[in-house]
Design a protein that fits this description.
With about 210 residues, the protein is an all-alpha fold. It has one domain. It has ten helices and no strands.
Length: about 210
């Protein structure tokens, strides 16, 4: 019973559409009708402002983190089970019943629940792991200006990195399933995002390099 309750709780916590709420509260717009039409953090940054985007980001990261934190306080599940519950929260974000089962891509929510799961599983080893991936995320986001592209590059490296830190096979398998889910969810817009990102941003770095 506790597993069913936890799955439902994680799903509906993940389903709270913070980006949509911020769009309504700040500009009185439905962000699903403008920009990329994606009800996620990235669209808020592009459409409204960095302040509004930051608020949406905190909400989306926070719901992934606190969904698992609350469940962990209640049941003390291990990292493997928490990862599967984190996947439930991501699915809640992607298929939000509050938005007609059409939500965002799950990038921020994934980051949020990993910020909790990784320390629970790795202990003190998690510090360097988290710092490394936060820096990598920021660098790729600055270069590509796309969460989808950044996610597609970074996510596949996580199971490999974890293998050198922990030999917990069950946990790594759960993370691999998460990676496959995220890559599958981003497969549709990925080609378009890669082209747009390369044409507008990434190509600049190659131009600068060639001129030098």
């Amino acid at each position: 019973m506790k597993y069913i309750v936890s799955i439902i709780f994680a799903f509906f916590m993940g389903a709270i559409p913070y980006a949509y709420i911020v769009g309504r509260a700040t500009k009185h717009i439905d962000i699903r009708k403008y920009g990329s039409k994606n009800p996620g953090t990235g669209n808020v940054f592009h459409l409204i402002s960095w302040r509004a985007g930051t608020i949406a980001l905190i909400g989306d990261v926070g719901k992934g983190f606190f969904a698992l934190y609350i469940i962990w306080l209640m049941y003390k599940f291990n990292g493997t089970i928490l990862t599967y519950l984190g996947i439930a929260s991501v699915l809640g974000h992607v298929f939000s019943p509050f938005l007609g089962f059409k939500g965002g891509k799950g990038a921020a929510t994934t980051g949020g629940f990993l910020l909790f799961v990784i320390p629970v599983t790795l202990g003190t080893k998690a510090i360097l792991f988290i710092i490394y991936y936060i820096i990598a995320w920021i660098i790729f986001l600055i270069i590509t200006h796309s969460q989808v592209v950044t996610l597609s590059v970074i996510m596949p490296t996580i199971p490999v990195t974890l293998w050198f830190i922990t030999k917990n096979i069950n946990f790594i398998i759960a993370i691999i399933l998460l990676v496959l889910l995220i890559e599958a969810l981003g497969a549709g817009p990925l080609k378009r995002e890669w082209k747009a990102s390369y044409d507008k941003y990434i190509s600049r770095y190659f131009d600068i390099k060639s001129k030098n």
